């Protein structure tokens, strides 16, 4: 398995410390963010690229363009700016997340957004990683719907899916699209009291034996279906971010997953 790590896992680490932490785990693939922490808004892309090259890590993606499926207002301008940053930093892809506030977005608007974003990505040799969000309030909950829109936009050469184990479970989606998947985000939920419909990012911890999301089953199924891309840790829970030694916790999770799969 190709494990990777998202900066949100250890968001208190500086960029250089984060890259060094990845290498200490034996990992060479990382994801940086424009929110938690906001690397994009605080560090020049040229400096990010230099730090990654010095550390010997590859930036597989920047998280995230939001809400990518509402192509209006300042989104087109932000999309170009983020794509420019990604290209200059050496990142290979942009994660693209849909509107997640209870507002419905028409399928035609989703397709239009994918069509508009396609040349921006293609001109910079970037992949668009479309990540459906399984929350009940999400405007794009399933990978099946995302693929339908990607194909309607003739975007199969530019776009791939993000299979997020948390959102896959929340959406109740069972179908896998391993050959159309470019990245898998892994996190677990261990709180025995929260209902699936009430699960939030704040519940997302590292994967261990108490996981309720079926991470191990999902990973086995993806591997069996031919997925060979990175599995990137993306826990949002504050108890993970506040750990004195998050790197050791990730190491334990890697060991658990590797032994179970």
Automatic annotation (TrEMBL):
One of its GO terms (molecular function) is isomerase activity. InterPro entries: IolE/XylAMocC-like, UCP036778_sugar_epimerase, Xyl_isomerase-like_sf, Xyl_isomerase-like_TIM-brl. Keywords: Isomerase. The keyword Cytoplasm does not apply. Residues 19-258 form the Xylose isomerase-like TIM barrel domain. The keyword Hydrolase does not apply. This is Xylose isomerase. It comes from Ciceribacter ferrooxidans.
